[in-house]
């Protein structure tokens, strides 16, 4: 790494000397060429591994004008990419400090300085720079996009909403599904503080931004359930199958809880049977199997699950079947089923429950923002045979 840095600064000083030499009048260049003293000083610093001082020499040698500013910017980027952010900052600050620098180059230098601070994790300084650039036309879209990233890192969801709305207008892209999640984040904070009315309003705003926001519907149901309004919560949970049926599994246990609190088990079974025909999902089978088992016994429940697994093969479905069937097995059959049960349990422990449709990140927990690619609403529950290959 030190050797790379040596040659990088050496090249910079060589470029500075060349550009300075090229800019001389012809009459002067016709004279005997003398190596500039600063060039020799810079080389001496490099040989003594004093790279910072060599950078200072480079900055001093290379006069900033329309011919050389791109060189400064390129060198600054190189330092940043190599992780030498302090040196990149010095070069970009030197550019901005030049009063004669054209506006377009000043804004470009400011943008690069903002990226330097971002790389260094100095988010407050980066934010100030990108707020200034948000109103500078050539950089406004990228500056706003970067501000959104900063606010997401800081979990400043109010600012994220405002930046996203402005970015949507400037870049002509649809940010409403993302804005819906920002409102959900704000609503969850209010919900955790038991500020139910405020939380519900935020979730309403989320659905206004994106009517297919499953997260908002789930959270509205939770607000009502925490206030023992289970009957009112049901419609919010039931509409998830129309918003995005892939997330049905997130609502099933809440649905069952609501019906149980209301003492309406028959209605639950009726609804789940209808739901299973439209959207076959293992969580629906699990809850139905438990109800059938209580009412009609293990054998009927096992037959119900076996029928489902034949139609929609899945490791999780088979695991439910074995768990029910094993209670009535005896002798060698019971021992074999125990072996199979443990094998499937261990296999399921290694399989993800959720996977990102964008980058492939997988895990056992639902993240509304993928930890891998940082996209929203791309983490999906894994269903069917996909669970065995994910």
Automatic annotation (TrEMBL):
GO terms for molecular function: iron ion binding. Pfam families: TPR_16, TPR_6, TPR_7, Zn_ribbon_LapB. Residues 354-381 form the LapB rubredoxin metal binding domain. The keyword Transmembrane helix applies. GO terms for biological process: lipopolysaccharide metabolic process; regulation of lipid biosynthetic process. Residues 21-390 are cytoplasmic. It comes from the Bacteria. The keyword S-adenosyl-L-methionine does not apply. Keywords: Cell inner membrane, Cell membrane, Iron, Membrane, Metal-binding, Repeat, TPR repeat, Transmembrane, Transmembrane helix. Belongs to the LapB family. NCBIfam families: PRK11788.1-5. This is Lipopolysaccharide assembly protein B. It comes from Aquicella siphonis.
């Amino acid at each position: 790494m030190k050797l790379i840095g040596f040659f990088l600064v050496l090249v910079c000083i060589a470029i500075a000397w060349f550009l300075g030499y090229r800019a001389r009048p012809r009459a002067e260049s016709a004279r005997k060429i003398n190596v500039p003293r600063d060039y020799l000083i810079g080389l001496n610093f490099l040989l003594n591994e004093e790279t910072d001082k060599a950078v200072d020499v480079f900055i001093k040698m290379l006069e900033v004008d329309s011919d050389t500013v791109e060189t400064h910017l390129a060198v600054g980027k190189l330092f940043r990419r190599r992780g030498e952010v302090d040196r990149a900052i010095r070069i970009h600050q030197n550019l901005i400090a030049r009063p004669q620098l054209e506006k377009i180059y000043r804004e470009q230098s400011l943008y690069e300085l903002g990226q330097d601070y971002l790389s260094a994790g100095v988010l407050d300084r980066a934010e100030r720079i990108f707020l200034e650039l948000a109103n500078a036309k050539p950089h406004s879209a990228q500056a706003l996009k970067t501000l959104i990233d900063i606010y997401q890192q800081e979990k400043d969801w109010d600012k994220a909403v405002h930046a996203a709305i402005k970015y949507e207008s400037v870049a002509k892209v649809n940010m409403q599904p993302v804005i819906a999640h920002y409102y959900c984040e704000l609503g969850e904070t209010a919900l955790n503080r038991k500020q139910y009315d405020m939380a519900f309003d935020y979730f309403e705003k989320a659905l206004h931004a994106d009517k297919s926001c499953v997260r908002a519907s789930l959270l509205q149901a939770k607000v009502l359930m925490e206030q023992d309004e289970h009957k009112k919560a049901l419609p919010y949970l039931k509409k998830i199958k129309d918003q995005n049926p892939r997330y049905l599994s997130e609502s099933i246990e809440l649905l069952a809880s609501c019906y149980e609190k209301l003492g309406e088990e028959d209605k639950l079974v009726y609804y789940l049977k209808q739901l299973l025909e439209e959207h076959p999902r293992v969580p629906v089978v699990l809850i139905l199997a438990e109800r059938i088992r209580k009412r009609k016994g293990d054998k009927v429940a096992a037959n119900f699950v076996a029928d489902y697994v034949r139609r929609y093969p899945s490791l999780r479905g088979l695991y439910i079947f074995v768990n029910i069937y094993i209670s009535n097995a005896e002798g060698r059959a019971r021992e074999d089923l125990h072996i199979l049960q443990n094998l499937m349990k261990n296999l399921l422990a290694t399989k993800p429950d959720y996977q990102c449709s964008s980058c492939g990140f997988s895990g056992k927990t639902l993240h509304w923002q993928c930890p891998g690619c940082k996209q929203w609403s791309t983490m999906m529950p894994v269903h069917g045979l996909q669970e065995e290959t994910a």
